[in-house]
Amino acid sequence: MTVDTKLETPVDTQTMEQAVLEPATLRLPAVIPPVPFPIETLVPDSRQQTPAVGQRATRSDGRLHGLGQTKYIDDIVLPGMLYARIKRAGVASARIVRVDTSAAEAMPGVMAVLTGREIPVNSFGPSFQDQPVLADERVFHAGDGVAAVAAVTEQIAIEALEKIKVEYEPLPAVFDPVEAMKESAPKVHPPNSNIYATKVVKRGDLDRGFAESAHVFERQFRTQMVEHVPLEPHATLAEWDANGRVTLWTTLGRITLGRTDIARTLKMPVNRIRVVGTIVGGNFGGKNEITQEPVLALLSKKTGRPVKGVFSRREEFISSTTRHPFVMDYKTGVDKEGKIIARKVRLVLDGGAYCSWSETTLGKACILAPGPYNIDNVHVEAFVVYTNKTMTGAMRGFGAPQVCFAYESHMDDIAAALGIDPLEIRLRNVFDEGSISPTGQVLHSVVVRDSLLTAAERFGWREGRP
Amino acid sequence: MSSISMRVNGEMRTATVAPETTLLRFLREQLNLTGAKVGCDVGDCGACTVIVDGMAVNACLMLADQADGRDVLTIEGLATRDQLHPLQQAFEIHAALQCGFCGPGVIMSAKALLDETPDPTVQEINDALAGNLCRCTGYTKMVAAIQDVARSRGAGTVKLPAPGNIGRA
Amino acid sequence: MKRRGRGIACMWYPIGFTVAANPSAATVKVNEDGTATLLTGTVETGQGALTVLGQIAAEALGISTEDVHVVSGDTDTTPMDTGAIASRTTYVTGNAVRLAAEEACKILFDVAGPMLGVRPDQLEMRDRKIQVKNFPQRSLPLGEVAYHAQAVKGRPAIGSATWNPPTVPMDPETGQGKPFNTYVYATQIAEVDVDDETGEVEVIRIAAAHDCGTAINPMLVEGQIEGGIAMGIGLALQEEILFDSQGRQINPNLTNYIMPTSLDMPAIEVDIVDSYDPTGPFGAKGVGEPTSVPTAAAILNAIHDAVGVRITSLPATAEKVLAAIKAGPGREMKQLTAA
Fold first, then answer.
1. ipTM computed for the complex
2. Staple C195 to which of A307, A364, A413, C200, CB 3.0 to 4.6 Å?
3. In terms of domains, do B90 and B158 share one?
């Protein structure tokens, strides 16, 4: 029975049978014998030191994490709390003809059902409001929510979703971003163009730059769609009180602006909404906009009880934002020594069904696309387009990992073609203090050269091949 | 509904559960032991790892009924009132956890490893953590923390490296 | 046969929003015993932001990290913050925290000046004391001044401030402008083994040299770099959401969407590049996002170095690498992934 004798040997030696027969002998809370070999730390407590900056101070939440005492949303239970689940469309592009919730509402244990038509202002988005909280007239991608249920248990809520009947009329769809740019492509958000944002950065004279180049290289690069995979799925707990105030404990990385979005969708004054950002179990950009918060607020209002909703791992993939797939065309002119003279870049971002943080991603990718290099003649044009796929949004780097993959692959292509060492060609081109960025900005605190030399030293680059 | 009894963190617990109740739901919802997390509910992520009869298991894949008559240890059972478990201490010192959601599972996997293999190699540590997904840390500081604990067991106590060296690969 | 290769990638990355305002506010309260409470509207999402902000407040007040309690993430009680996004917390919120602490200091200096017989502008905070600059022998414990300010002078030491990075809008035709106030830089070098019979890539080690301005907490900076590299490895080699012809995800689960485990991690050697940004709090910039920017590029360059093929679409799965090896070096790769 007690296999686990190495660290903690429970002092309780009674048998199972006795315990079952005599519940009064149970004792709580558990008191387990001391651990025999504590680590003797001789590290001065960095949290006590002054000056504070530069200290390897331990995290204020580190001990609680290790003890399992950190309370995430899913660990919170309020009296009378209900569990919410959202029905996902499963079709990528369709008109919603009819939503029949009667069978679900009739189920014992189901306390409320909500559809998109009941949401006061059924649209949101950080740049423009093109995203419904729950799809009401049209489905734009397969992960769209179409109805929500609050029930006394999670299992009943899941079963109730099965009983909600949604009738769809299929509509044409487009899934490839380059296809979506064509005039003939089905429009994701008619009558608007699928190209919903563009950005240009240009300096110098590109044609003259290419004309003066000794060599010109061209290559297309592509990247994939990626999910953030925070270990904690999106979760929200909503409680609407009798004063008409709603409190939302939620996994949002930006509560102040989240509150603005929630107030808008609920058509409520901001001061009647309290958003509490508990410790978030991983963000990486995926928890930077609202998802189910208005739905849970309204379900709580309808039922008069607190309502908790936690995304399943599947919903985390299909219904939250992802990283933009990029199609990147690079054309670069260099002189004989590998100094870049001209660079033309064209970026097409797959924006998925909604804008979300695409404008920001487009802007950063466009500005960063030439790389950390002094280039006199630069032209970058970037487009982000709608497709009927999972929406893409903020994810660690806002397009920078994608363009870095392209400009650094391209750099090695050039180095190989000219027979220059990859470290050396970078050192010939990188920014220094006071360099001018592609947008004409004078840069300060520039240490890219130092980072190249430091990493090369650490790696042993100049010592040659391992 | 079936009646089950098991030892949880040294205490005998009896309860009546529905047959489909997983050990994870039983621990979280009936015993209020919320240290084990629901990360995927299908055994992919390891955030629900607990130790049953000395073996690290995904509590979401085990029915509560299957744990009947067994000995279950959760993250809540590692520390005493006044002392952290060495793994908890080392994880804190190294800042080995960031968002912390995977932490209870990782620490339970590490404990099961050290109970079987007191002085594991880096490869053995990596093997033991392979079922525990973490998106924040790259696992690096976790491995360093586990190594510190292993060293301290071998030598009685061990002096941790100077502050500038903790966590450096 | 396993072939070894090495690849280098450097990058630049901005801190904060692109032109758009992204302000932070903060309130610092120095308690009557010289400890402090910091109110911030940002949210801890695992990166250690609250620890770092506490260290910034502590530095400005001349006290230790442990002396500062941080209250965060509640719209009813904490001040406006744009949030945990765009690698901005240390830089933008950090500046607001530093300014708020300085406001609280002003009150304490006003109170301490007459107590020490000097002008308030002659004072500084250090080691839990308020002392005369260049004459540290004359000092008072911070707690004593804070108590005096609150209980005798009726001026509790509370400071509030906001900060927003200054930018210049970009010209819509040319993009010329100053979209960000500062940037960070980094280089990562990867060493990989590529099995030329299976196409399988194993990352052996990565040397990462990152600029974050002053490292407010080097241990947490390392944690960001190590975690960012893990995410970069996933982007480079493993992770991809796939769709069927109807636009439905094929692999929306962690069984078939393969993110890096402990077994996929290389040895990581971290260097924090010496750097100081005068526009950041105590010279700090930021580090969250840039850590995962150059990883994929470095790994893909290392694959090219190892087996001579240029994979032009991510991820570089074993199938894709093997197909490229079979097609021979120098050939253009076709996009192998589903739409």
1. 0.96
2. C200
3. yes
How far away is chain B from the Cα of C176, in angstroms, using its nearest Cα?
36
Neighbours of B55 (CB within 10 A): 13
Helix then strand then coil, in percent of chain C rounded to 5, is: 35, 25, 40
d(CA C298, CA A437): 23
Give the alpha-carbon dihedral of A441, C168, A383, A438, to 10 degrees: -10
Q: In sequence order, what are the residues at sequence separation of 6 or more whose Cβ sits closer than 8 angstroms to the Cβ of residue A242?
A: none
Question: Chain B contacts of C227, Cβ < 8 Å?
Answer: 98, 135-138
Hey, what CATH class is A235-319 in?
A: alpha beta
Q: Pick the residue of A31, A32, A63 with the most B CBs within 10 A to test the interface with B by mutation.
A: A32
Chain B hits for A37, Cβ within 8 Å: 86, 152-153, 156-157
Helix (H) or strand (E) holding B149: helix B140-154
Query: Is the Cβ pair A404, C304 closer than 8 Å?
Result: no
Which tokens go with A113?
């059902």
Write down the architecture of domain A82-170 according to CATH.
Alpha-Beta Complex (3.90)
H-run or E-run covering A178: helix A177-180
The whole-angstrom distance between C105's CA and the closest CA on chain A is 16
pLDDT of residue B136: 98
Residue B116 C-alpha from the chain's centroid: 14
CA distance A134 to A141: 12
Does the domain formed by A178-226+322-463 have CATH 3.30.365.10? Answer: yes
End-to-end Cα spacing for chain B: 51
Domain that holds residue B148: 86-165
Domains observed in chain C: 2-14+180-327 (3.30.365.10), 24-163 (3.30.365.10)
State pLDDT tens for residues C155-194: 999 999 999 999 999 999 999 999 999 999 999 999 999 9
Furthest CA-CA distance within chain A = 92
pLDDT value of residue C264: 98
- Which residues in chain B have Cβ-Cβ distances shorter than 8 Å to A152? none
Q: Is C289 a catalytic residue?
A: yes
The model's pTM is 0.94
| Confidence class for position B154, pLDDT limits 50, 70, 90 | low
